[in-house]
Structure formats: C-alpha cells, structure tokens
Amino acid sequence: MANLTVNGKTHDVDADPNTPLLWVLREWIGMTGTKYGCGIAQCGACTVHIDGVATRSCVTPLSLAAGKQITTIEGLAQNGNLHPVQKAWLEHDVPQCGYCQSGMIMAVAALLKDKPKPSDADIDSAITNICRCGTCLRRQCGGFWRRARAWGRSSIRCQRRSRRGRLSRGDRLGCYQAG
Ligand code: FES
Ligand code: FES
C-alpha cells in the first residue's frame, strides 16, 4: 500500500510499486487530465509536478512518487483562480485538439516558476514536449512569449525549428502575432 499525495489530498493506493504513476493517477485516483502519449518519456503528455519538478509520469514508478507532493493539471489552479500559464493559454486560444496541452502547461509552469525570465537555451532544454496534431505550435510560441514578456522578458524566440535551423525573424514574428 502506497501513500500518495495528489493536489494536496492523500490517497492510499493498493498497487504494485512498479506501476507507472501515470496509471495510478488515471486509473486509481481518477485524475484523467494527465495523458498517455508515448509511454517512453519522449512526448511529455504525461507531465506532472513531483515536489515542484516537471516529471514524466509514464516512466515514474509509484514507489518513487510515494511520500512526495504531486500536482496534476487538475491541481494547478488555486482557490478557483487559474494559474497564469492557464490564463495565457486561454487568452491565446492555444490548443488545437488539446491532447498534449496538460503536459505542455505543466512543463511551462514548472520552468517559469524556477526561471521567470528563461533564456532561449532554458526553454529549449526544458520544453521538449511534442504536440501530436502539430497545428498549435505557432499559438503555443505566441502564448509562451506573451506570458514571458508579461513577467519581464522583452523578447523570446520561438523554439520551433525550420528544417535548416531556427525560423527566420519574419516567421517568428508571425508566430507571435498568431499568439
Ligand atoms: S506519455 Fe510520458 S512522455 Fe509520452
Ligand atoms: S494540441 Fe493536439 S496534440 Fe497538441
């Protein structure tokens, strides 16, 4: 029996200690906002916070999560107020199909908590989530940029790469405007 604290509430979970946290959250606790994408720590759809750190729950065994503070997308809003990243996502109408969005938001929220003014390198290394339908990339870049700007960073480059490297300045501005 493992003791799991999710969004401030403690649960006794009778599951094998090797069960991935993702499945415990979804199947045992009913927190289905955290999504299954690849199951191999590649896409980020399953991202939650463990003690404030963005973590891919599909490869995190229950035994490692027990006794720690776990936050899922359902617990990001506080006292009925959406998290600033959630507000930015809504403001910029970021999601397309929406499947990857909870993981994206959790990853961005963790990054901006640690680094309110992230560098391009910070963003590149921290936000490696994959959007499966792919059509929301422009909006995500815009939403992220606007959020970062609101927190004091005057400019931030789109992370999306063209086949030959970084996007041109014109393309990046297009992303911002789309956001
Ligand atoms: S489902 Fe966990 S990283 Fe893809
Ligand atoms: S919004 Fe569709 S997978 Fe990202």
Descriptive account of the structure:
Strand 6 and strand 7 form a beta hairpin. This protein folds into two domains: 2-76, Ubiquitin-like (UB roll) (Roll), CATH 3.10.20; 84-177, DNA polymerase, domain 1, CATH 1.10.150.120. 39% of the residues are buried. The model is unreliable at 152-179 (pLDDT under 50). The chain has 179 residues and is an alpha+beta fold. It is 36% helix and 14% strand. Residues 95-101, 131-133, 136 line the site of one FE2/S2 (inorganic) cluster.
* Strand percent estimate: 5-15%
Computed over alpha carbons, the radius of gyration is 17 Å
Query: What topology, given as strand order, has the largest sheet?
Result: 2-1-5-3-4
What is the CATH architecture descriptor of the largest domain? Orthogonal Bundle
SSE order in H/E notation? Answer: EEHEEHEHHHHEEH
Could you tell me which ligands this complex binds, including any ions or cofactors? FE2/S2 (inorganic) cluster
Distance between the termini: 46 Å
Largest sheet: 5 strands, mixed
Overall spatial form: globular
Number of helices: 7
Average pLDDT, rounded to a whole number, is 81
What is the subunit arrangement here? single chain
Share of helix, binned: 25-40%
* Residue runs with pLDDT of under 50 for 5 or more positions: 152-179
The structure class reads alpha+beta
Structural domain tally = 2
The CATH first-level class of the largest domain comes to: Mainly Alpha
- The overall strand count is 7
Q: Which fold does the CATH topology of the largest domain refer to?
A: DNA polymerase, domain 1
CATH superfamily descriptor of the largest domain: [2Fe-2S]-binding domain
